[in-house]
Each structure stands twice: as structure tokens, then as C-alpha cells.
Amino acid sequence: MRTSEINRNTAETQISLKLNMDGRGESAVHTGCGFLDHMLTLFARHGRFDLTVSCQGDTDVDYHHTVEDIGIVLGSAFSEALADMRGICRFGDIILPMDETLMICAVDISGRDYLGLQVEMPCEKVGDFDTELVKEFFLGFVRKAQVTLHFKQLAGENTHHIIEAMFKAFGRAMAKAVKIDEEYKDEIPSTKGVL
């Protein structure tokens, strides 16, 4: 079973995260930031990843450290659970509609970190959540997971829907990329023989 459990403690955050990549989309997420809880729940459900996250962070300052550090820990969990990445499909993509929003997400589990973000946020905040933190979350994730991740917004004017479409699409694209390809289950999906 492809699972991981990561605990990360710093002066700013104390995070405990459990991931089962071959789950049913069940989640229990308590980050201290309601909007992030909702987004991670959507990610888990649409990726069919079982995800448990608990975070105590310096949210009395703002959500920056909490959001970035959870991205880091989630990326670490995927990296650990994938091990040598034998048999995975490696690539995943989706075009996802969310009401007036249309989002493309594509991922390559390449061993190289890169975030391509062609997304415009009409508002600086959704409730008390700073929308600039979405980028910080995904930067933390790609750096630790060592994946290439692209988002391209084709349409959308509602900031909440744009971010929600990103997290749903992220779950769906990651699910495709980490899926075991039965025909190649004993192979590393690279001409180099390593990712």
C-alpha cells in the first residue's frame, strides 16, 4: 500500500499528515484555516486520496506559514509514498469546468520541481484567506514532491471558483499521474531508468 505519515515541527507550525494514495477520498483536515480545510478536502475527494491533516500554526499572525508548510508536508508525503515511482503513469491532466470557470491542470512526476501558474485572481481575499497564498502552497508542494505542475485558467471571474477549480483539478491530475499502469507496473516511466 502506498502510504506516508509525516510530522513536521517548526517554530511556526506543528503539522501531522497521513496520506494513502490508494484510498477512497476520505479526509479529516484541521489546519486552523477553514478555506484551506475545504480546498484540501476537495483535493482528497477528487483524487480519491485518503488524507488526514492536523496543523497548529501561528494563525494569529496570518495564514502564510500554515499554508506554505502544509504544501511542503503534502509534497513530502507524496514523494515518500511514491518511493522509486515504479509503475506509475507519471503524467496526468484535466480540463475542469466550475460554473463560469474553466481550468487546465497538468502534472509530470518528473523528479524536477516547476510550477507554471497562468491564473488571475480577481480578488486579494476570499473571506480571511489571502489568495496569494495559493501560489505559496503549490510552490511548497512541487519543491518537495519534485513534480512539474501547470495551471492555466481559460475562463473565470469568481475568485472562490477559480481556487476551487484549481484544487479539484489538482486532485484529478495527480490521481491520473500516480495511478499504476498495469502494463508497465515493474518499470520506471523514464528512458533514464530513474525519476
Structure commentary:
- With 195 residues, the protein is an alpha+beta fold.
- The chain has one domain: Imidazole glycerol phosphate dehydratase, domain 1 (Ribosomal Protein S5, domain 2).
- Helices cover 34% and strands 31% of the residues.
- It has 4 helices and 10 strands, in the order βββαβαβββββαβα.
- Strands 1-2-4-3 form a 4-stranded mixed sheet, covered by helices on one side. Strands 5-6-10-7 form a 4-stranded mixed sheet, with helices on one face.
- It is globular, with a radius of gyration of 16 Å.
- The mean pLDDT is 95.
Q: Count of DSSP helices? A: 4
User: What is the H-and-E element order?
Assistant: EEEHEHEEEEEHEH
Mean pLDDT: 95
SS elements, strand count: 10
Distance between the termini: 20 Å
Q: Going by CATH, what is the homologous superfamily?
A: Imidazole glycerol phosphate dehydratase, domain 1
Computed Rg: 16 Å
Binned, the helix content reads 25-40%
Tell me the domain tally: 1
Largest sheet: 4 strands, mixed
Strand content: 25-35%
Overall structural class, as computed from helix and strand content, comes to alpha+beta
Please name the CATH architecture.
2-Layer Sandwich
CATH topology: Ribosomal Protein S5, domain 2
Q: Give the strand order of the largest sheet, numbering strands 1, 2, ... along the chain.
A: 1-2-4-3
Q: Which regions contain 5 or more consecutive residues with pLDDT less than 50?
A: none
Overall CATH class: Alpha Beta
Principal-axis shape = globular
Pfam family, one: IGPD
Family: Belongs to the imidazoleglycerol-phosphate dehydratase family.
Organism: Anaerotruncus colihominis
GO biological process, one term: L-histidine biosynthetic process
